[in-house]
Amino acid sequence: MPNPALIPTFIRELVVERTLPREPEPDLVMADPEQVAAYVEAGRIDGVMAAAYLFHSAQASQVIQRCKSVLDLGCGPATQLAQIAELNPDVHFTGVDLSSTMLADANKHILKLGLTNVQFRQGDITTLEVVDDQSVDAVISTVALHHLPTLQHLENTFKAVRRVLKPGGALYLTDFGRLKSLKSVIFFAYMNARFQPHLFSLDYERSLRAAFLKEEFADLTRRLLPGDASLVATFKVPFLVIIKTADKPLPASLRERLKTMRQALKPRYRRDLDDLRRFFRLGGLRHDPFA
Ligand SMILES: C[S@@+](CC[C@H](N)C(=O)[O-])C[C@H]1O[C@@H](n2cnc3c(N)ncnc32)[C@H](O)[C@@H]1O
């Protein structure tokens, strides 16, 4: 290794790994109707998020088997929550969100699907005041934590999770991980730009810029969450991280259903799903429910 001081500056610029500074989301709670509509549309109509939804539904289902009550932090329009709830009809789900715009949409969605195992509470996930101590069997959360303004808020959220979770409870928390270079942020944010509303691409870019580092998630997991919770990330670029407790075997009927749902995806989204499976497997995730 040559003495770094002897390397010309422009070469050092290229080789030294720098980390983009975090840029918190301008709208911490998603309340702007236009922004909410773009998010909902991308999730429900043209299906840009179909692969990610199915991936997380399958993974979360493995974690929450045998649980009776599950709390979803930052449930938003409940597209993800509804899919998990449909797959696990014997489990009761509570979605928590601060945005009344999101919750109105979530309620409509659940009613339309005729789901009776989901309810919503308006509340702040950093305190979870609306939830009693040791009252839930599992806590899940999908792509919501990057909305928190600071690392201290993430720490408070993890403390609140620990408080409301029953001893031995299950966890499935997933969010973006902050990327090291702007080039990677732009690549991931705009790779599907042709197929999604522009506001959604902008929202995605902001989300990636607001993400916490994998190392920050790892540190808080070690310090604040139950000992059996561990972190995995996509290899080699940690653009998604998952903090989870152990998987339990899925009933054969649910496995079959997930495989059928994978087959029913448009080919492009099926490829996206298989990429997610591959990048997480390389990152150390075990028990692929689609295998
Ligand atoms: C990107 S959406 C994710 C929605 C959903 N989990 C999904 O997978 O599609 C993030 C949600 O977190 C909510 N949120 C942000 N900060 C919050 C807080 N402190 N307490 C509760 N909800 C919050 C926002 O209102 C928004 O609905």
Detailed description of the structure:
There is one protein chain. Mean pLDDT is about 90; it is low at about 10-15. The chain is of the alpha/beta class. Helices cover about 45% and strands about 15% of the residues. A 7-stranded mixed beta sheet has the order 3-2-1-4-5-7-6, sandwiched between helices. Strand 4 (about 135-140), helix 6 and strand 5 (about 165-175) form a beta-alpha-beta unit. Helix 2 crosses helix 8 (about 200-210) and helix 3 crosses helix 4. It is globular, with a radius of gyration of 19 Å. The chain has a single domain (about 20-280), classed as Vaccinia Virus protein VP39 (Rossmann fold, 3-Layer(aba) Sandwich). The chain binds S-adenosylmethionine (SAM). S-adenosylmethionine binds near residues 125 and 147.
Order of helices and strands: HHHEHEHEEHEHHHEEHH
CATH class: Alpha Beta
Q: Strand count, sense and closure of the main sheet?
A: 7 strands, mixed
Question: What share of residues is helical?
Answer: 40-55%
Class by SSE composition = alpha/beta
Task: State the strand order across the main sheet.
Answer: 3-2-1-4-5-7-6
Q: Name the CATH superfamily classification.
A: Vaccinia Virus protein VP39
Number of domains: 1
The total of helices stands at 11
Radius of gyration over all CA atoms, rounded: 19 Å
Low-confidence stretches: 10-16
Judging from the principal axes of the Cα atoms, what is the shape?
globular
Proper CATH architecture: 3-Layer(aba) Sandwich
Question: Ligands bound here?
Answer: S-adenosylmethionine
**What's the CATH topology label?**
Rossmann fold
Strand content: 15-25%
Distance between the termini: 43 Å
Could you give the count of β-strands? 7
